[in-house]
Amino acid sequence: MAAHDLPPAMIETATLPMAWVVVLPLVLALMGAALLLIVRRSHGLSFVLALVSVLAIIACEITLLLHVFESGPVSMTMAKWLPPFGISFTADAFGASFALAAAVVTLVVLIYAEPEHPSAVGGGSFYALVLLLLAGVTGSFLTGDLFNLYVWFEVLLISSFGLMVLGGRAVQLDGTVKYGFLNFLATTIFLLSLGLLYGLLGTLNMADVMRVAPQANPAAMAGVAALMLLAFGMKAAAFPVNAWLPASYHAPPAAISALMAGLLTKVGIYALLRTLVAVLPATRDVLEPVLIIVAIATLVIGPLGAIAETNLRRALGFIVIGGIGAVMAGIALPNLAGVSGAGLYIFHAMLTMTALYLVAGLIERQTGQSDTRYIGGLYATSAPLSVLFLVLVLAAAGVPPTLGFWPKVQLLQGGLQTGGWIGGLLVTALLVNAVLTLIAGTRLWAHMFWRAAPTPAEATPGEPLPIGRLHWLGSGVLFALIIAAGLWPNPMMEVVRSGAADMLDPARYVSAVGLAEVTP
Amino acid sequence: MDYVLAALVGCFVALGVYLLLSRSLIRMLLGVVILGNGVNLLIFTAGRLTLQIAPIVPPGLDQPDGAIANPLPQALILTAIVIGFAMFSFLLVLAFRTYQTLDADNTDTMRLAEPVDAPQPPLSY
Amino acid sequence: MNTVIFRTIAPLIVATMLVFSIYVCLRGHNEPGGGFIGGLIAASAIAVLGMASSAAQARKALYFDPLSIAGFGVLLAGLTGLVSVFNNSPFMTSIWLYLELGEATVPLSTPLLFDIGVYLVVFGTISSIALGLESNEGEEP
To answer: Which one, out of A344, A488, A493, C141, has a CA that is 20 to 30 A from the CA of B109?
Structure first.
């Protein structure tokens, strides 16, 4: 290699202050977690510190989202290296809005969990682990590098392990074993696909992969994408590999399982959306039949499982799985309406599923048990609880006055635009899913709230716990957000549409990272 | 050499999957570790094994003198090893605690979270 | 494990390992070594100490709680990354300071501080796990 014109390897220009907003949420979450680990013996200080960190993160992410919405994706590459060499963090409208939703959900869960701590949640490291989980989730949403995505996956995985066993009851250990092994296996499979991808392309920067992927051997790329589908499908609990979710999500205390339900599977499905739709669109077309089958099966099996389940939070776990199917349907429908529907669904699911689990926690506190066969007559005991649960169930099924309606409309629109048997099948499956979710949810509601309380002889005795003000505040804030976003969907819709446009046409994304345009 | 390593990766992955299919927690744990090592070896092989020259730019030059070995896979593998190690130690502690608490190493007997005799849902409504 | 020989030798081994771990950590920028390896060596030293005496005694000898040490390490590493904001460069850009001490030049840099952060993280986490496994009621990482 002669020493002629050297291509530049370092960035020479000064960094824009705005670019810092991409990494700041992440750094704040990590450092917040570190501080909380140090002060974890003091409960009051931990709570205040955690609250302040999450509020700062939310402020950063609102700034980021506004900036991204106005002037397209933002990127920062670590340590002055030029993009394919340095690790990039790149936020587009999807990543920024999901990261914001994740921080909001975390804030709500922190407020909700405060009165339960430390007796029910147990262990001083709760707040540190929550912030570490948030760091992992935010990192996965904002990173622009596939290997870095793997690292953030592991960060969120290890903190979710820690959260899941906090308190160390036997049922938690049992759930964590299943959750832990399968999710670790999933990330190992993801790493396998990354190794192969690196061997094929020589790069793992997302924008760079978009650029060079068309030149690679399509058959090999399809294999890589299939491995990614398996890995992210496992993380997201899509149909054939979904069994770990209902086995583990109900084991930890309500606040923790709400956090998991809101964040973990959504990160998996977001990674699938990002890799298949934006980074490797050619292989998505190859995998389309598989995606359609998985989407339909997940859509139908989720709510069917919920109907057949007696444990309240396990039933909700199956509803979470059904929601993953809706996003899979959006991935299988690669037009603007379909992808923006998938994006909006992820946003909606993060808020709604967390709220559902939080309210389930309230129901369990009120009644002292989680078996829906023995809960009854709650409508007479607590009218606000019944309104909360009913409306959230309607939101999960996608009934109009809530946020859940709009992604479903977009997905259906996407299906109708695609037309043919593919569109028809997916539209039918989405509608069947809505009906089944409605049946499952209203059945739960009717059993727990509407019917008369079952005779006490049947019930296994449990200790009812008081519901504090912060419990109501946490669930109420999320509930109000879901209703408000459902009544004024336009801002969110615009954000998601611009994100979906960037997903389908990566030109803006690639140029934000600082690489040349996509070569045809 | 590439073919030998590729075959070795295949052996590692096959062994890992075989152990993961077992019902015993400890074997599954070993399976995960072996699978992870196979994957690390795969990344190593994917970075092309050609040269034995360290990727260091000699003093006074702007770029390496001639072709060098690829330094990136080592960074990737080191990260993966560290993470895999953290995961392994967590799962080891978890398996140990599970064994202490549930007195079970066989996953078939761990049915606390998902009871075997799960009741039928109520048939009203 | 509690033979007299082991208990007598253990403090010597521990001290040597701790010093060696710092050496390995500091030489890591240009030669084999670094924060991760150094931290592992130091954590093994604590594990040896825990085996020779008891986990509780090893904790007492550490004075700081191992997980708090790890937290401080993360904090330190994060802060060194943020320093580059004053330099108009992206996150984690290295900044060097060459100290002229008479004849010698001592290069100080943010990567060095970052590596010390990594050292503390690895040291804290691994010794926490090791001590947790040694005392039968372990603390989760």
So the answer is: C141
Q: Which alpha helices (DSSP H) does B21-70 contain, by range?
A: 25-46
d(CA A332, CA A337): 12
State pTM to two decimals.
0.91
The three-state secondary structure class of A77 is: strand
CB A482 within 8 A of CB A355: yes
Tell me: pLDDT of A3 over 60.
Answer: no
Report phi then psi at A74, rounded to 5.
-115, 150
3-state helix, strand, coil in chain B (%, to 5): 60, 0, 40
What sections of A274-311 are H helices per DSSP?
281-307
Closest-CA residue of chain B to A146: B76
Residues in chain A with CB shorter than 8 Å from the CB of B36 are 188, 191
Domain range summary for chain A, segments of one domain joined by + = 17-513
ipTM: 0.92
Distance CA(C62)–CA(C47), nearest Å, equals 11
**How many angstroms away from the CA of B54 is the closest CA of chain A?**
16
Q: Are C126 and B89 a contacting pair at CB < 8 A?
A: yes
Domain segments of chain C: what residues? 4-134
Contact residues for B37 (Cβ-Cβ < 8 A; gap 6+):
B12
Residue B3 has φ and ψ, to the nearest 5°, of -65, -40
In this prediction, residue C141 has a pLDDT band, given cuts at 50, 70 and 90, of very low
Please tell me the predicted confidence (pLDDT) of residue C136. Answer: 61
- Give the list of residues 6+ apart from residue A199 with CB closer than 8 angstroms, or none: B42, B45, B46, B47
Handedness of CA A411, A414, A416, A419 (dihedral sign): negative
Q: How far apart are CA A272 and CA A97, in angstroms?
A: 17
Choose among B78, B82, B93: nearest Cβ to C140.
B93
Chains in contact with B via at least 3 Cβ–Cβ pairs below 8 Å: A, C
